[in-house]
């Protein structure tokens, strides 16, 4: 089968391409990426067809999707802070871009479209754990753009019988996730600081909690969904019901590294959700055999990769 991956040269995308390449039922992988945040180096050693360009361009995405059995739409403009700085850009890439992908799929034989959404759509809803029946309450343009993306996917399924699977990601981390910039996620930022003997910067009191999910657990679900043709009439959380606050994350990293780490607190950031934890019952129903990798094991593998960067 042929699988097309938008954003396939990025962090999650390149890890997904590795997972797909290991499956005997996948014989062609096409990656669409403009390399604005991804890197061709992430795909080194993989037999993939890298098509450099933007999925916002109808001709580019049409060529990539043609003949595909599944399309995994990971391409996005990530980060809540970036969306606050430039809301229009986030909307154009995340919402309009998803619409372009869905239109291409509709015109090219109705392959399964797996759409990456985000736990940020729950936003200000205080209920924990977050289940898919909760009312979305986005607190940032990024969250709103992701809600629009998953809504478009479900609308295309209802209107045009296009098979879709919207997955809400929760704080994915692991190898290939780059640190060292203003929008770095907590795990790579913490590890990078620790490896360079710098304090771990926490925005706020550090008691905000997240459902940290190792990237291999995420890609195992997506690869299985793509090859089995798993669909859903509602969004599905892609996380496993864990809850770790940032102070606890720092403590886990101390255990992995075997030393005490300094912490530096900074003012809270606008748009940040206080607590996030997935209800994983829908995920477990669709993927009963999945065995997620726990936080400590994931941190060890991420530290090993980041150490190799020098």
TL;DR?
This protein is of the alpha/beta class and 310 residues long.
Describe the structure.
With 310 residues, this protein is α/β, with parallel strands linked by helices. The chain folds into 2 domains: 2-170 and 214-241 and 280-292, 3-Layer(aba) Sandwich (Rossmann fold); 186-208 and 242-277 and 296-308, Alpha-Beta Complex (UDP-galactose 4-epimerase, domain 1), CATH 3.90.25.10. Helices cover 39% and strands 16% of the residues. It is built from 10 helices and 13 strands. It has helices at 11-21, 58-65, 80-85, 87-107, 141-160, 186-195, 215-228, 246-257, 281-286, 295-308; strands spanning 2-6, 28-33, 49-52, 70-73, 112-118, 164-169, 172-173, 200-203, 209-210, 213-214, 236-238, 244-245, 263-266. The strands form 4 sheets. Strands 3-2-1-4-5-6-11 form a 7-stranded parallel sheet, sandwiched between helices. It has a two-stranded parallel sheet with strand order 7-10. Strands 8-13 form a two-stranded parallel ribbon. Strand 5 (112-118), helix 5 and strand 6 form a beta-alpha-beta unit. The longest helix has 21 residues, at 87-107.
- Total count of helical runs of at least 4 residues: 10
Low-confidence stretches: none
How many E strands? 13
CATH hierarchy, class of the largest domain: Alpha Beta
- The CATH architecture of the largest domain comes to 3-Layer(aba) Sandwich
What CATH calls the topology of the largest domain is Rossmann fold
- Main sheet summary: 7 strands, parallel
Strand content: 15-25%
Mean pLDDT, all residues: 96
Query: Any idea what the shape is?
Result: globular
**Rg (C-alpha, Å):** 18 Å
Order of helices and strands: EHEEHEHHEHEEHEEEHEEHEHH
CATH superfamily of the largest domain: NAD(P)-binding Rossmann-like Domain
Class from helix and strand fractions = alpha/beta
Q: Kindly, what is the distance between the CA atoms of the first and last residues, rounded to a whole number of angstroms?
A: 38 Å
Strand order of the largest sheet: 3-2-1-4-5-6-11
* Count of discrete structural domains: 2
Which range best describes the helical content: under 10%, 10-25%, 25-40%, 40-55%, 55-70% or over 70%?
25-40%
């Amino acid at each position: 089968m042929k699988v097309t991956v938008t954003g396939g040269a990025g962090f999650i995308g390149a890890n997904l391409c590795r997972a797909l390449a290991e499956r005997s039922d996948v014989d062609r992988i096409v990656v669409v990426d403009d390399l604005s945040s991804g890197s061709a180096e992430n795909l080194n050693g993989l037999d993939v067809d890298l098509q450099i360009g933007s999925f916002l361009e109808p001709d580019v995405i049409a060529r990539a999707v043609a003949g595909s059995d599944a399309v995994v739409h990971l391409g996005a403009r990530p980060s809540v802070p970036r969306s606050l700085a430039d809301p229009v850009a986030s909307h154009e890439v995340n919402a309009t871009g998803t619409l372009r992908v869905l239109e291409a799929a509709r015109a090219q034989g109705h392959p399964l479209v797996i759409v990456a959404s985000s736990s940020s759509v729950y936003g200000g809803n205080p209920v924990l754990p977050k289940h898919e029946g909760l009312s979305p309450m986005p607190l940032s343009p990024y969250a709103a753009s992701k809600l629009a993306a998953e809504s478009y996917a479900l609308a295309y399924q209802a209107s045009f019988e296009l098979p879709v699977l919207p997955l809400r990601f929760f704080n994915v981390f692991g190898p290939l996730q780059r640190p060292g910039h203003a929008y770095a996620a907590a795990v790579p930022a913490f590890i990078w600081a620790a490896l360079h003997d710098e304090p771990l910067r926490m925005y706020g009191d550090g008691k905000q909690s997240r459902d940290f999910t190792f990237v291999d657990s995420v890609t195992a679900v997506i690869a299985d969904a793509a090859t089995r043709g798993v669909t859903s009439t509602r969004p599905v959380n892609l996380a496993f019901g864990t809850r770790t606050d940032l102070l606890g994350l720092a403590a886990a990293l101390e255990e992995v590294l075997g030393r005490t780490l300094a912490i530096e607190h900074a003012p809270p950031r606008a748009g940040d959700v206080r607590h996030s934890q997935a209800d994983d019952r829908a995920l477990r129903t669709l993927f009963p055999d999945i065995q997620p990798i726990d936080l400590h094991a994931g941190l060890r593998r991420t530290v090993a990769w980041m150490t190799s960067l020098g």
